[in-house]
From TrEMBL:
Residue stretches making up the FAD-binding PCMH-type domain: 1-212
Name of protein: Xanthine dehydrogenase family protein subunit M
UniProt lineage: Bacteria, Bacillati, Actinomycetota, Actinomycetes, Pseudonocardiales
Entry-linked Pfam families: CO_deh_flav_C, FAD_binding_5
SUPFAM superfamilies: CO dehydrogenase flavoprotein C-terminal domain-like, FAD-binding/transporter-associated domain-like
Top-rank lineage group of the source organism: Bacteria
Length: 317
């Protein structure tokens, strides 16, 4: 790790005015600094800023510095959010990691994290070895010839399914952005991963009220049961009335370059009987547009099965 300066701004305004890289829990940033993937010369410790609190009622509001463990344990948080947080990391990491930092975490692609290798995200124009190399963990949806890295956050998948928004503070007074619009598929510019502008800071997360999301879940398939990133995951919520599906929300992770909402699957579920045949027919649409690589073709059937598993869990709830 290279030398750096550390300061702690006292207010959000001071943080926005100061040059440097924001540090909250540090569970991603410090790792990347140790690997020389990121080499900031000045860190801004924002942990004392007034960006905490969890409010429920007419929707859900979460301060950006709230820790993952506290959010997961809060009684007013939708099950798919709580479960995504609980499955995302060890207890120690959940106690440290902030929700804002989780949403901003970088990909776990091994080529990105190895500075001896080319990587278009880290060094634009240098190439993407994963396209033809070791790519078992990589994406099949939302990819491009420039990048096939998966998005790492579990809870972002659940939040995209729930139409969450984030509030960004900036010199112009701030703005609110839908989380689904915040993340950017790689295209020809994989180094541009999101819509955070220079000098902006995530201050809070907002989830609209959706009462039937009390029937929701997050299913994560991985190589080992604890502390592992997803091969495939599914966040799902069902509104079941008289044995039929009135509404549905479905998003997936571990298979795409950004948290991947599935509107075609949701539409296929609406009005259908809440049973296995309906779930399988809807899930069959999930991989439309997929581009499997040499080592991850198994993710296409796995994606469909993971969605069916999540929906069956909700039907039986």
């Amino acid at each position: 790790m290279r030398p750096f300066e550390l300061t702690a701004p006292a207010t959000v305004e001071d943080a926005l005015a100061a040059p440097g890289t924001f540090l909250a829990g540090g569970t991603t940033l410090v790792d990347l600094m140790k690997l020389d993937v990121l080499t900031p010369g000045h860190l801004l410790d924002i942990n004392e800023l007034p960006l905490r609190g969890i409010e429920t009622g007419d929707g859900l509001r979460i301060g950006a510095l709230e820790r993952m463990s506290d959010i997961a344990a809060h009684p007013g948080v939708y099950p798919m959010i709580s479960r995504a947080l609980l499955l995302s990391a060890s207890q120690q990491l959940r106690n440290m990691a902030s929700i804002g930092g989780n949403l901003m975490q970088r990909t776990r692609c091994g080529y990105f994290r190895d500075v001896a290798m080319p990587c278009n995200r880290r060094n634009p124009g240098s190439g993407c070895p994963a396209v033809t190399g070791a790519n078992r963990m990589h994406a099949v949806l939302g990819t491009s010839d420039s990048c096939v890295a998966t998005h790492a956050s579990d809870v972002a998948v659940a939040l995209v399914a729930l139409d969450a928004e984030i509030r960004l503070a900036g010199a112009d007074g701030g703005r609110t952005v839908k989380l689904a619009d915040f993340y950017r598929p790689p295209g020809d510019s994989p180094e541009v991963e999101h819509d955070l502008r220079p000098g902006e800071l995530i201050t809070e997360l907002r989830v609209p009220r959706l009462d039937w999301a009390a029937r929701s879940t997050y299913v994560k398939v991985r190589d080992r049961q604890s502390y592992e990133f997803a091969l495939c995951s599914a966040a799902a919520a069902l509104d079941i009335r008289d044995g039929h599906i009135a509404d549905a929300r479905v998003a997936v992770g571990g298979v795409a370059t950004v948290p991947w909402r599935l509107p075609a699957v949701e539409e296929a579920l609406r009005g259908a009987p809440a049973r296995l045949a309906s779930f399988e027919a809807a899930a069959a649409l999930a991989a439309d547009g997929a581009r499997p690589l040499s080592g991850n073709g198994f993710k296409v059937p796995l994606l469909k099965r993971t969605i069916v598993r999540a929906l069956l869990e909700l039907e039986r709830a």
